[in-house]
């Protein structure tokens, strides 16, 4: 019998085999993956069924090789290789998503506990696990009360199914595995059947401190494939997990293994013992059990007061406030008074951390009426008065705040100042913020502490990134911000929950409506994710050494991207500042101090005008701006600048960008070689030619009334050159022209009544504020100072420069560097701090 001759290998087959071979080597050596796992990906590529995946991997491997070669040869490059682990992760998820329908409804296979525990042991040992978490199918949290659900067992689960109207009763077994924002735990039901649970956003203490064989309910369980590709019960919404202590009487027989029999006094002693050992989570559980056991009168007050202290330590501030109030005796005898002082202090401390300063003031007033010399209360009152003053009239010591912020302490303790703005519907933009009063250039519009913030260096979970299967993209926010926001909302007041859930996101979830089930406010984790994706800010990392350079605080939002590598290290969610809408022609600029955002006016803003900021840099090409805004915020900017640039031919925009880049390099060369007589004249002539070429690219009438920020760098350099050569007429003309290009009329002929009169917006023209304006005003100051008759004008120019500086930089920090340019090392003056 003759054997079949194998088909000859095609060129495509050879390419697949080559890519599979190189990927296998990379996964073994670069990622430390196991042989069987590596072979899965290699076989997919060799099969020819996944050529798109192969092409991505091939490109990523080639780019990585190129960067390694460049590094070895000493070449500098700003490029980044494509994230190969992210490509593998996306490929796996997209494959699973495409097979959901085929798996849906398949009966779950029974699993013995030892097999599930072995799986978790392998997960725990996997030190090379990818730092990603997936958002696949969105599903709502269960809003039904537990006693309305039918209790089922693991054997009744079917694949890719949300078991609506059901509740699963299981007990924890084995150890807990924490991977970023995901907690893995093994459970079994009363029949001994076992399964793995993947819990997201949960406090790991909650799972670790559930005693073995403690029962809990999973409301409307979702049985699917987990991150490892194996079956799991996935819990995305924390409120879908209910401790069996909350069970209705009708189900109590099913939870017969719960520990019972201790009295409230005995539970209190258990809690005290855990508290002494600094096992605060377990202490809180014991105190709660004491309350559930029916303690009454003074005993109940003592337990509530102790539980309030535990809640404060664990940052469960809303619970701390409620438990502290429940601890009050309102008895006039001396012993109860001392205990009430403690309770009021704990309630006040919780309210302070909740940023409810008026409530904090009320509790402290009652505390001090009972004990006017209480030291703890008096110290807290002193801090509170500072916060109240900040919230009322923006009485911040901003320079001191900047000095205090560090990597060890990136969070600031301030009150929000938002009274100059009001939220209302914006035409074509949804909700927005509007000026509640006239706000002048450089003045503070608002200052707000973040509702939640995460910093890349603080924990491993901050490096975990979220991948959205819906849009096949990584969201540019650390998954840790998602987890911390969900956890904080669990401990927040209804008012704070409403502030966050009223923010817009692609997925509406439960909206801003407060839903309560089984005694807690129900939260939709996917809604919170999309709110963060649409509203979070990237924030800078505090410097290890104090920043003192001019414009040291200027930061912009780091755009979110499609690659995992684009995720910023630090992110924050602000509930008020997030309402500010975008424009490429903004009237406000933002800076960050730790987890606080400051917005200042970059032009006079009349009462009733909308506050606008730039989500992405207006200096980016219009196509890049529009692509980012569509990807992240799902809108297309239709401002006058975008309309104008869109009307231009793309080749003209590209030519302009090339000239701007060349002009920027030359501006640097001018500053470097200005004192070198042999090169000076040639460089200046080149700069003047570039200036003329750049100016010509803006000659079209579509630029009428629009700022041309690309001109500023070369104009600043030329103004400095002319001043250096004492060609003051040309210097003055270049500075005035530069301001004109940015939409401003600058008057350098005579002093005004005030410094502000020197710079006014051009009629019918949009304006732009850039840092080069400060340096040009410094040049103008030096030029004017040489003439005795222009001394008053020179001082007004200096004051104007400082106003522009504070509008852009947010605080005075670094102003001394500007003063050096003015030939004045004295402290700054005339800067509008408010």
UniProtKB/TrEMBL annotation:
Any one Pfam family match given in the protein's UniProt record, by short name: SET
Gene3D superfamilies given in the database record: SET domain (2.170.270.10), Tetratricopeptide repeat domain (1.25.40.10)
UniProt xrefs under SMART domains: SET
The protein's name: SET domain-containing protein
Sections of the chain in a coiled coil: none
Alphabetical list of InterPro entries matching this protein: Gramillin-biosynth_MTr, SET_dom, SET_dom_sf, TPR-like_helical_dom_sf
Naturally occurring in which organism (per UniProt): Friedmanniomyces endolithicus
Domain named SET: residues: 418-616
């Amino acid at each position: 019998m003759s054997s079949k001759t194998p088909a000859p290998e095609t060129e495509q087959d050879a390419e697949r085999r080559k890519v599979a071979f190189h990927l296998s080597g990379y996964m073994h050596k670069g990622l430390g993956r196991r042989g069987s796992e590596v072979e899965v990906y290699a076989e997919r590529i060799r099969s020819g069924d996944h050529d798109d995946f192969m092409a991505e991997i091939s490109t990523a491997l080639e780019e990585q090789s190129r960067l390694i070669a460049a590094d070895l040869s000493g070449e500098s490059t700003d490029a980044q290789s494509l994230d190969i682990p992210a490509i593998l992760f996306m490929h796996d998820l997209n494959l699973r998503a495409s097979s959901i329908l085929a798996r849906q409804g398949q009966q779950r296979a029974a699993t013995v506990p030892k097999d599930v525990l072995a799986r978790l042991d392998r997960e725990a040992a996997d030190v090379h696990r990818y730092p990603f978490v997936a958002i696949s199918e969105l599903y709502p949290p269960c809003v039904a009360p537990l006693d309305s659900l039918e209790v089922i067992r693991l054997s009744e689960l079917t694949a890719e199914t949300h078991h609506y109207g059901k509740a699963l009763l299981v007990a924890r077994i084995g150890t807990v595995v924490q991977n970023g924002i995901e907690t893995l735990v093994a459970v079994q039901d009363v029949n001994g059947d076992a399964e793995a649970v993947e819990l997201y956003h949960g406090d790991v203490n909650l799972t670790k401190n559930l005693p073995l064989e403690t029962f809990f309910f999973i409301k409307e369980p979702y049985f699917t494939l987990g991150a490892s590709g194996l079956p799991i019960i996935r819990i995305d919404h924390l409120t879908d997990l209910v401790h069996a202590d909350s069970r209705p009487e009708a189900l109590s027989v099913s939870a017969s293994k719960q520990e019972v029999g201790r009295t409230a006094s005995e539970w209190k002693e258990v809690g005290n013992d855990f508290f002494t050992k600094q096992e605060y989570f377990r202490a809180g559980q014991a105190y709660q059990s004491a309350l559930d056991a029916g303690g009454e009168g003074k005993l109940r007050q003592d337990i509530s007061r102790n539980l309030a202290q535990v809640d404060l330590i664990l940052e469960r501030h809303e619970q701390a406030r409620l438990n502290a109030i429940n601890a009050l005796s309102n008895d006039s005898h001396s012993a109860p008074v001392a205990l009430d002082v403690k309770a009021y202090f704990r309630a006040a401390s919780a309210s302070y951390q909740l940023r409810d300063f008026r409530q904090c003031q009320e509790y402290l007033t009652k505390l001090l009426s009972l004990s006017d010399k209480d030291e703890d209360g008096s110290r807290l009152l002193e801090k509170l008065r500072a916060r109240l003053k900040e919230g009322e009239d923006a009485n911040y010591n901003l320079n001191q705040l900047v000095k205090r912020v560090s990597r060890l302490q990136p969070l600031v303790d301030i009150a929000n100042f938002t009274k100059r703005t009001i939220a209302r519907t914006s035409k074509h933009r949804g909700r927005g913020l509007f000026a509640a009063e006239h706000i002048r250039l450089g003045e503070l519009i608002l200052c707000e502490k973040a509702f939640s913030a995460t910093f890349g260096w603080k924990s491993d979970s901050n490096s975990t990134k979220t991948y959205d299967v819906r849009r096949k993209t990584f969201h540019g926010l650390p998954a840790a911000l998602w987890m911390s926001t969900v956890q904080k909302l669990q401990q927040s007041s209804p008012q704070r929950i409403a502030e966050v859930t009223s923010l817009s996101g692609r997925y509406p979830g439960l909206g801003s409506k407060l839903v309560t089930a089984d005694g807690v406010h129900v939260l939709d984790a996917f809604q919170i994710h999309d709110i963060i994706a649409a509203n979070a800010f990237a924030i800078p990392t505090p410097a290890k050494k104090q920043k003192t350079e001019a414009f040291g605080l200027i930061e912009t939002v780091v755009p979110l991207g499609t690659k995992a590598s684009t995720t910023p290290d630090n992110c924050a969610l602000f509930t008020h500042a997030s309402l500010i809408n975008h424009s490429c022609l903004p009237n406000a600029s933002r800076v960050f101090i730790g987890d606080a955002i400051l917005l200042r006016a970059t032009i006079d803003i009349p009462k009733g005008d909308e506050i606008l900021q730039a989500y992405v840099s207006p200096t980016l090409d219009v196509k890049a701006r529009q692509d980012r805004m569509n990807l992240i915020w799902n809108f297309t900017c239709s401002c006058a600048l975008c309309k104008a640039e869109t009307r231009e031919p793309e080749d003209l925009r590209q030519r302009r960008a090339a000239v701007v880049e060349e002009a920027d390099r030359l501006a640097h060369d001018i500053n470097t070689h200005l004192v070198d007589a042999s090169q000076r004249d040639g460089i200046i002539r080149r700069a003047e030619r570039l200036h003329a070429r750049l100016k010509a690219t803006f000659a079209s009438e579509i630029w009428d009334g629009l700022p041309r920020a690309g001109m500023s760098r070369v104009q600043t350099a030329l103004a400095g050159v002319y001043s250096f050569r004492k060609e003051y007429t040309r210097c003055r003309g270049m500075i005035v022209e530069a301001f004109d290009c940015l939409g401003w009329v600058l008057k350098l002929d005579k002093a005004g009544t005030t410094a502000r009169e020197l710079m006014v917006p051009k009629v019918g023209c949009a304006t732009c504020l850039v840092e080069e304006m400060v340096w040009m005003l410094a040049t103008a100051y030096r030029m004017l100072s040489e003439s005795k008759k222009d001394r008053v004008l020179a001082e007004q120019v200096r004051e104007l420069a400082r106003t522009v500086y504070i509008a852009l930089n947010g605080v005075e920090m670094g102003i001394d560097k500007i003063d050096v340019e003015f030939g004045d090392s004295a402290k700054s003056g005339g800067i509008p701090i408010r």
